[in-house]
Amino acid sequence: MQGSNFFKPNEGTLGDGICALYDSPDKKLRLYCIRYGSTCLILGGGGMKNVRALQDDEKLKAENYLLRYISKKVTEALKDGELWWSDDGKRLEGNMVFED
User: Fold this and answer.
1) DSSP for 11-61?
2) Which of 13, 72, 77, 97 has a beta carbon 3.0–4.6 Å from 83's, enabling a disulfide?
3) pTM: predicted TM-score of the whole model, two decimal places
4) C-alpha–C-alpha distance, residues 49 and 82, integer Å
5) Are 12 and 18 in contact (CB under 8 A)?
């Protein structure tokens, strides 16, 4: 099975890169992550998939919205030059501090 089969895209808002990462083959565990192509993955939290929509589970909803916030901050930091891709394009580098 290819690695992309473990990911369900579009688990956030348009363009934020939020995906759900599932165990397989049962898909009973749902972890949220931010994918930047095939080189960078920021893992978040999640939990057991026991509801159809994340809005039906407060823990899953909170974990998803936290990743949405992080995605927004990372995108802003990249635009502002506070974060950048390493020379080999495999790592995010710079100063990323969350004070909220």
Assistant:
1) SSSTTS-EEEEE-SSS--EEEEEEEETTTEEEEEEEEE--SSSGGG-HHHH
2) 77
3) 0.79
4) 36
5) yes
Q: CA-CA distance, 94 to 85, in Å (whole number)?
A: 9
Cα dist. 54→15, 23, 44, 59 in Å? 18, 17, 14, 8
Cα–Cα nearest to 19, from 54, 58, 59: 54
43-69 confidence digits (pLDDT tens)? 888 887 777 777 788 888 888 899 999
Q: Residue 3: phi, psi to the nearest 5? A: -60, -30
Please, how many CA atoms are within 13 Å of residue 59, restricted to the half-sphere of its CB? Answer: 10
Distance CA 28, CA 72 (A): 28
**From CA 46, how far away is CA 58, in angstroms rounded?**
11
